Amino acid sequence: MFKRLRRVRLNSVVRNLIEENSLRVQDLIYPLFITHGENVKNAVASLPDVYQLSIDNALKECAKLSQLGINAIMLFGIPSLKDSIGSEALSEQGIIAQALCAIKEKFPHLLLCVDLCFCEYTDHGHCGILNPKLQSVDNDLTLEILNQQALVLAKAGADLIAPSGMMDGMILSLRQALDDAGFLHIPLMSYSTKFASGYYGPFRDVAQSTPSFGDRKSYQQNPANRREAILESLEDEAQGADILMVKPALAYLDIVRDIRERSLLPLAVYNVSGEYAMLKFAQKAGLIDYERVLIETMLCFKRAGADIIITYHAKEIAKLLNGI
Known about the structure:
Layout: H1 12-17, E1 28-35, E2 41-43, E3 51-54, H2 55-68, E4 72-78, H3 95-106, E5 111-116, E6 130-131, E7 136-137, H4 139-156, E8 160-163, H5 170-180, E9 193-194, H6 201-207, H7 227-239, E10 244-247, H8 253-262, E11 267-271, H9 273-284, H10 290-304, E12 308-311, H11 314-321
Parallel strand pairs: 1-3, 1-4, 1-12, 4-5, 5-8, 9-10, 10-11, 11-12
Antiparallel strand pairs: 2-3, 6-7
Helix pairs in contact: 2-3, 3-4, 4-5, 7-8
C-alpha cells in the first residue's frame, strides 16, 4: 500500500489545520534610513518605495507603521559629514541619536533597533578604523569605537542593538561595555553570519556606504563556506548574543537551517536590498504574481528556521495579512 499524502490536501480546512509554518506581522522589522534636514524624502532608483527620510518624515512613517501593526524598526543613519573614523556615529548629536530621541518621545511602544556599524559614517566606506598595513579594518581598534557608538545609542533610547561589522569579539566587547554602563537590559541581535555578498548593491545606494576601495571580503563571510558560516554564529552565541542573524536570506536558507538546528536562540534573517529589488522589478515587468511570490518567500524564511524577518516589504506584507 502506498501512502496517499494528498488526502490531507484536498480540503482547505484540513490544509490549514496541518500547516507547519505561518507568517505574522509581529515577525517583521522595517528598516528606515534617516538623514539630516527637514521635509526630506529622497527616492532611490535601485530600491523602489524606499526613501532617505529626515526625522520629521520618519515620524510620519512611524505613524503609518503603527497603524499597520508593525512595532519594530531598524534605523540606519546618513551623516552630514564623513571622516576616517565615522565621528558622527560617536556623537550624541549624531543623526541616529537624534532620531531615537524623537521617535521614542512620539512612539514609546515602538521597538527601536539600531544597526551598529561605521560603513555609512566613514569617508572610506569600510566598517571601522583602517589598518593601512593590512588595507583592511583594524579589528580591535574598531571594537573600541563600536563600544562608544553603542553607549551613545543606548543613552538616546535604543531598545535593541544590532552590530553588523563582523568584527571578531564584538559581542563580548559590546556586552561588557553595555553592562558596565548599566544597560544590562538591552539585547544584542548580532549580524552573526553576514556574507560578503553581491546582494547589497541597492542598500549601498540608499545608505551611501559603498567602499571607496577594495571590498569587505577580509571581514565578511565567504559565500562559499558553510562550516565557517555556522561557526561564526555559534561563536557569537557563546559570547553572549541574544539573537542571531543570517544576512542575506534568500540565497542562504541552507545556512539558516544549519544554524537553527544547532542553536536554541531566536534567529533573524535580513531580506536584503538586492532580494527586495529583484521582486519589485519583476513585479514592474509583469513577470510574477507579486503578492503570491512575496508571501511564499517570507514563508520560506520561516520554514528554514527564521523567527524574525527584517524586510523592506514589511508594509506590503502587513497590508496583505491584515486584508487591507
